[in-house]
Structure formats: structure tokens, C-alpha cells
Write a structure and sequence with these properties.
The complex is a heterotrimer. Chain B is of the alpha/beta class. Helix content of chain B is 36%, strand content 17%. In chain B, strand 5 and strand 6 form a beta hairpin. Chain B is globular, with a radius of gyration of 18 Å.
Amino acid sequence: MAVELLKGNVAFAEAAVRAGCEAYFGYPITPQTEALEHMAKRMPELGRVFVQAESEVAAINMVYGAAAAGARVMTSSSSPGVSLMMEGISYIAGSEVPAVVVDVMRGGPGLGNIAPAQCDYLQMVKGGGHGDYRSIVLAPSTVQELIDHTVLAFDLAEAWRTIVVVLADGSLGQMMEGAELPPMRPPRPPSERAAWALTGAIGRPTNLVSSIHLEPSEEEAFNQRLQAKYAAIEAAEVRVEEHLTGDARIAVVAFGTAARLAKTAIAAARDDGLAVGVLRPITLDPFPTAALRALAERVDGLLVVEMNAGQMLQDVQRVVAERVPVRFFGRTGGVMPMPEEIGAAIRELAHEVGAADDAAPWQEVPA
Amino acid sequence: MTTAPLATTPVYERPDALTDVPTHYCPGCTHGIAHRLIAEVIDELGVRETTIGVASVGCSVFAYRYFATDFAQAAHGRAPAMATGLKRVSPERLVFTYQGDGDLASIGAAEILHAAARGEAITVFFLNNATYGMTGGQMAPTSLIGQKTTSSPLGRDAASQGSPIRMSELIAQLDGAAYVVRRSLHDVVQIKRAKKAIREAFEVQQRGLGFAMVELLSSCPTNWGMAPDEALGWIRDAMVPAYPLGDFKVPEGLRPARKGAHA
Amino acid sequence: MTHAERPIADVVIAGFGGQGVLFAGQLLAHAALDAGLHTTWFPSYGPEMRGGTANCTVVVADGPIGSPVVGRPQAAIVLNLPSLDRYEPLVAPGGLLVVNTSLVDRAVARDDLDVVAIPADDVAAELGHPKLTNVVLLGALLARHPALRALGRLTPEHLATTLARVLPERHHHLLGANRAALERGAELAGAAPAAVAPTGA
């Protein structure tokens, strides 16, 4: 494989194809429609399943059906469509079948707009659907990572029998960047589907895929099992990137696109002699609690940067628990924070906590 | 005749496709009959091990307990979408849904129409008892004009509560629908006809002819506030006139040609 | 590399939908990738499918790219007046502004920019391919942008090779014209003195 210039939406769709995705169900919505269009072409030519559903409600329930049959299955959508999928996501979580959902977030609430945003954090990370369920939520920040996370999402979904959300945004979906697609992995033959799957009860007891436990004590036991699984996921699957945090006195905490914007901002801030780094949660659930707590012990202040009004901020505040000042800079409504603005917020925080006072201009770089 | 030895040939047994579990359905409810008919057909076709059912939400939410086949339990109204997903990745399996009128004709109206329009190769059993049984007898999209329910206590009023939806007639309009018939479960003759239709609806799927649906007029004595026999009479006298029995669409060649066969 | 260094170039290309703004950016990005560089192409995307305003940002770097968008681009190509009005104030001091004077009837007001003024619609028409306005201007940018020019890898010849790779076969009869447009743009950029006011349309 070679590095190609790939559009995010096409890249993750093709990555899913190469990860052995057997079925895709979706509904057109900007800014992710290119993914649906790619699947509409690719899946039939490979003899796999593509259905344009009548709604996102139907799409996620088709995903539920195919997942119940033990097939590798995915859907993709954008914020308003994902809101419609919440019912199905809860059922999928409640019946523990594996499925992959890619959310290419856009501005909201309501119809909002089609510009890049990160305002589905709470919806995707904290639930959104009803019940005590959690999803694994991956937050790519480059087209390469969008590809890699899509492949990883299928493996994690099957390993843990859970929903895995790839939480991208309109900029990642629409931009082009050099990236390398994975090699083609052929789909698993139907004869090798999981033992729990609905494959027909040939020579075995019948299987049931259901999320109903009418007896409260049974439902509670099921919930306890789910929580134990989530604890195991938390112990095994946290992924985080720390970028220039070794000597940092200020750290930006940001995910996805906001994190890459922040990297440019801190490069400029470092040019000005500020010791700044970035902590980037790659898994938003499970959240990188330990890494963030350790970082909070070392730095003088944290700046959370998001393309929303402060959603992950709540998790950062929870984890940091007032060890250090936590400030927030965000843009909403589909407005991307420019690195220059992030830089200004970094400088403001540095001055507030005294991290700029002794910052020698150790790296004099002409503008 | 009276001296003949006792017959040892069983004339009535539990089909293999039914589990040996008492149902939760109310006395006199026709769900049990519908379950049995479907199970008998599954046995007769020899497809118990290759059939996957999809239960809906409503009184038949526990259908999966009673069928000895693989089963999924769908969200309210979404059984046709879930069945679409199952069937598309398991084309060699028979997939059927079992849905009530609230599930299919109200909250799941979009899903059933589009599954039919796509010609999904699934078989749908639509139990129409003109009420929401599980939640306690509220007005359904199929409740009759004037029918008193807990949410239409003065009787369904067309001006404010709309008119009953005849789903079979509606769905038969769609090119993707291959087989759409309405039967009733109110007496033995009708029950026998219903079983034939259930068998045909599975055969349509087996032969890859497209979407198949059997609507079954059913009773709900508990929520109708009637004795079981009275409820069967109400199907015959009130429901059948509003929901005429018959074949709305039958694919050519499904039935052997015979004289006087209706289209 | 240890952190996102300053990119070699960030370029905004802006104009009307249909002027090939997004394509010009993609060509630059493809060519950069072919030259072994890192690149991002970031489009404006709106509900209008045709005819609205369009812009894209291309970042070219030696290593991983942080932000694919910039508040103060180092360089801009503006294909019409609204785009000049929007981006003239934003180009970083000392930056490069390439103006299609065929559709701009005012002078560039700032005096701290390197301005390349080319009546690119007319130039493209003279070349016999009026739709290659975008390519003429891209040729001018690549010849004039100090860091991109210094690379020595994004020449008209190199871009022509890239085009041959990315253009669908059915458009290959236009490869020669595209190369000519790139070369003509480069030639005019070389000839245009710095910070000169455009002549107007």
C-alpha cells in the first residue's frame, strides 16, 4: 500500500471495506454522505450488502439485525442522524451485539448546520440512548487515524461485543490528507460466525438476541455484568497521545480535530518560549483518566479546547478535581477555532498561572 | 364403532417448532392459535433449524419464548428493519417477523412500508386486533370508528382521531410486495385458511419471490371487555366488514392452476 | 519530527463555485504528496452544490500537519472580487497574494504583500482553454512562493506528471494544455513586479 491523498469520508468507508465489513446500512446526511456513496458502489461490486435505509432509525435497526446474525456491520451518519439512531444503539448495547457507528459531527442543536463541530461528545460518550450502557468511543484526528480507527473499531466491537463509535467531525470527513489504506481482509465466511449469533439452530439449541429482562433482579444482574465488562474495557483499552508534555507547564487537552489545531497553536507558543504540550484522548470512552491525572500533577494549568461549548471539559474537571486551574476555549456552531485563537488562550492561561513569567525565549524563531 | 380399539395415532401434538412452555397470553386470545399455525407450517416445511424469527413489541414481545427457532427481539416497530439486516446477511435463512397493529401500523409504519417497497425477502405476520393489548387497550391505528378504548373512551372519532388504516390494501399497492393477504382467526374454517396463507407466505420467501405479509384478524377479549366467544363474534361481525378478508396480491405461479381460483 | 513544525506553505484558494478552486487545491495537494511532502486539503463545503462561493486551504509541510486551516494564510489565490475583499486583509504580512485581475476591478490596498496580478481568464482564453484560469494562477503561485519555489519539486513538469496520474483517462487530452497553463502562469509571475497594483478588468 502507498500513501494516497484521500478524503476522510471515502477513506473510512474504504477502510471498513478492507476490514471485512459485510454490510453497510445508512441514510444520506451532510457532511458524511461521501461515505454512503462509496459504500453504494463498493459493497455491491464485492458481493456485499449495501442498503440505503428509509431513515437513520431504520438504518441502525438494520445494523442491529445484521449484527444479531453475527455479520461485520456498520453505519455512518452525522449529528442529527445519530440522534435518531439512539434507540437502536441502546438496543444493540442491551443485547451485546457488535456494531460500528461513525459519527461525522456537525453544528447543532437541531438542524444546525453542516460545518465541523464536536458537539456530540456528551451524546456519544455519556450515552444518548436510554439505559446504563457505554460505548467505546474513538476520536481520530487525522485521515490516517480515521482509517486506522475504523479498522480497530470492528475488532474492538467483536472482542467486547459492544458498540464502537468513531467520533469524527465534518472537517475530518471533508478534508483530504495523505494516508495509507490497510490491506484487504476478506470477510469472515458466514459459517464462521460467532456461536451466539442467529445463524439458524442447526444441530444446536436456539439462540436469542434480545435486550429484554422483565424481572428486575435479572435486569440488575445483566447490568452488573455490563458494568463489569465496561470496567474491563477501561482497564484494557485506554488510548491517549501525549505531545510535548514532558517539560510542559501548560497543557492543552483536546480531542480529534481540535487537538490537531492545538498542535499548531503550541508550536507557535513554544516558539515564544512557552513550555506547552497537548494531551489528546484517543479513546473518549474509556477516558484516559490516569494519564490526565498524572499530567495535572506536573503542570501549572490545563486548557481544554473543543469545538463545542465545553463537553469533554466536564470530564477533565472531574478527573483533575481542582488540582490545577482548568480553563476552556471553544468555538461552537460549526466555527473552527483558529490556532491563533488557541494560542491567545494558551498565553492568557500561562500569564494567569505564572507559567509565562520565567519563560525564557529559549527557542527564538523568526516569525 | 363403539367396539373399535382405542386409537393410538396421535391427532394433536405440540409442533417441534413450539417450545414446551405455557404462554403468557390471556385466555381466549388468538395469539396462541397464530403461534401454533406458524409452528405447524415450519414443521411441515422442515425449516425449524433454518428459520430466524423477529419478535416485536406488544403482547407478542415474548414470541421468542414459544418458537423453537433462533429469534431476535426488535425495538418497537423496527422488526422489518431488523429482519432486513438479518436476511441480507443470511440470504439462505428464512426470516419472519411477528408484529401487532400498534407495532406495524403505527410506530413502525415507515419500516414496514419500506421493507415492502424494497421487496425484502422476508415474511411478515401482522396480528390485527384493533387495540394496544400489552399497554392495556389503547386506541390502535386499526381501531374501528366508534370503538371504545382506554384512549378513545367516547369511541374512536374520525374527525379528531383519524380513520383505521388498512395496511394490507396499502402495502399491496407497492411493487416490491409479492404476497399480501388478509385472513381471520375467528372460526375453524378461517383458521384453516389462515394456515394455508402462512404456508404460502413462507413459500414466497423460499422461492425468492419477494416480500410477503399475512394479516390475521385477531381477538383481544381482555381489552375488548368480552368473553372469548363473544370476542370471536366481534371479529366476524365488526372487524371483517371493516377489514375484508381476501388476497390483495398473490404472485403468479405460486398456486397450482385450478378452476375458479381467485387472483 | 518531535512536534508540528511550521509548514512550508499554507495557501488559500478562493473564488466562485465552478472556477475550479477546489480542483486547483487538490492538484497542489496531490503534487505535494507526489513530491514526498505532507499535505492537507481542506474545502469549504456548503449547501449549494453549484455556483456559490468556494474556497479551500492547502497546507504543505515536511512532517505531520497540525491544523489544516489557518486564520492568517501565508498565501492566497483569489479568483474574483469577493474573494479579494475577504482574503486581502487576512494574508499574513509579507505573504503572497495572487489576483485574477480579469474579475477584479480594484487595486490591492495593502503594501506589505507580494502581489502577483494576472488577468488569468484572458490568459487562459489566449491559450485556447478558458477553463484553465485556476491552473494559470496555480502556476503563478508555485513560481512566486518563496518556500515552494525553493523546494524545486513543484515545477510545471512535476505537476504535469501528477495530473497524468490523477486525471481520469478521458481528460488526458487536456494534459498538454494544463502544462502550458502552468508554465504561462509561472512566466507571468516571474515577470510581474512585486506589490504592483493590478490593472483591473
